[in-house]
Amino acid sequence: MCFMGFLVSNFLTDNMDSYSYLRKVSSEGHLYNGFNLITAEFKSKEDTVCYYGNKGNTEPIHLKPAGIYGLSNSLLETPWRKLQHGKHLFTSVVSRNLPSEGLVQELLQILNNEELQTPDPAQESQGEGYSKSMLQALSAVCVRSPGYGTRTNTIILIDATGNVTFTERNMLNCDITQWSTRSFHFKLAD
């Protein structure tokens, strides 16, 4: 039995590059419930970002450095309306050239967007066995449903000189009105 909670920490502690690590994970992917994993290395001359989802391709992929990718409760770039809506909102925010704190706040608002994106036949076709009300709840960027929903948001900003702002917002006591937000600032090592 494999534990998904170790996928991230193992990447951070293994001495492997992004792609090699995801190749190793992909060879064991069948041992896990469904997951998506994005790994990255930020180096002064070349950044590397890779993706693997164990319910999709058998091999990880390198993501092109230019572009905006969307990931929801399916595979990378699954053309769900909520994913397209989220990407549109994201693009409109990042195009405004906001200072770091303002950008974080605007991105958290996007991740908290509860606007339903129904009907969505593409999403509904993957939701076999779910009730109509649950499929509707799942159609929002931020899912709110009794017993299931969005409980954590993470924003990671990295500027051109390697300064990082890592912000995480967590729901407290399973209460959608109570949240704790913490930010950390540091510089990437060369």
TrEMBL record:
It holds the Pfam family TANGO2. InterPro entries: TANGO2. It comes from the Eukaryota. GO terms for cellular component: Golgi apparatus. GO terms for biological process: Golgi organization; protein secretion. This is Transport and Golgi organization protein 2 homolog. It comes from Megalops atlanticus. The lineage of its organism: Eukaryota, Metazoa, Chordata, Craniata, Vertebrata.
